[in-house]
Amino acid sequence: MKKIDRHELSRLHELTSLERLARSKGFLTIAGIDEAGRGPLAGPVVAAACIIPGGVYISGVNDSKQLSPKRRAEIYDSIVSNDRIIFAVGQISSLEIDEINIYQATIQAMLQAVARLSCIPDYLLVDGLKLPHKTIPGAKITQGDTKSQSIAAASIIAKETRDKLMREFHEMWPHYGFDQHKGYGTEKHRKAIEVHGPCAIHRMTFEPLKQL
Predict the structure, then answer these.
(1) pLDDT tens column, 39-98
(2) Rounded to 10 degrees, what is the CA torsion of 143, 187, 159, 91?
């Protein structure tokens, strides 16, 4: 494993301050939670939960939106190949999003990810949302993917997992360009909807699809 330089180690130490604070209050197993895909016109919303033991650092980890696709994929590989890190994902389909709305779908994807962890956490750090878990306490962390290593790792896992799904959907419906925009409402995507109409993974409660 490549040695982490002093500057990066200092950054990562700061990025684990919320986890250390939770441990100082007696919590032992802290999971960071984040999602990908709340805004697109197509595809599922995907959430990830990630438990990183104290003293374990992931070089380069950051908010997934601040990383290049290449760097994000590299960090994803380093996360999932580390046998000390526990993670799980949850996803809610576009059909379910239309049935219960995107906010509730995001909550359900997050709860699903937590339930699928092989180790039950005793505290949750959640990016931007107050997660109503029945038994596990936690905290809503605004812009948490820039403040917590475990949330940042979860954001990378969620983003990489969702992007892979969208590339698979591209094979089924290539004329929409899902491999490029991942379902977001780009000009190319909107024009494809105008020409071809919606497909099975479009969110029909989102504008401009709602008007159709």
Answers:
(1) 999 999 999 999 999 999 999 999 888 999 999 999 999 999 999 999 999 999 999 999
(2) 100
Polymer length of the chain: 212
The CA distance from 180 to 31, in Å, is: 31
6-162 falls under which CATH superfamily? Answer: Ribonuclease H-like superfamily/Ribonuclease H (3.30.420.10)
* DSSP string of the chain, one letter each residue: -PPPPHHHHHHHHHHTHHHHHHHHTT---EEEEEEE-SS-SBS-EEEEEEE--TT---TT---GGGS-HHHHHHHHHHHHT-TT-EEEEEEE-HHHHHHH-HHHHHHHHHHHHHHT-SS--SEEEEESS----SS--EEEETTGGGT-HHHHHHHHHHHHHHHHHHHHHHHHSGGG-HHHHTT---HHHHHHHHHH---TTB-TTSTTGGG-
How many other CB atoms are there within 10 angstroms of residue 69's CB atom? Answer: 11
Distance CA 171, CA 191 (A): 19
- Per residue in 112-168, pLDDT (tens digit) is 999 999 999 999 999 999 999 999 999 999 999 999 999 999 999 999 999 999 999
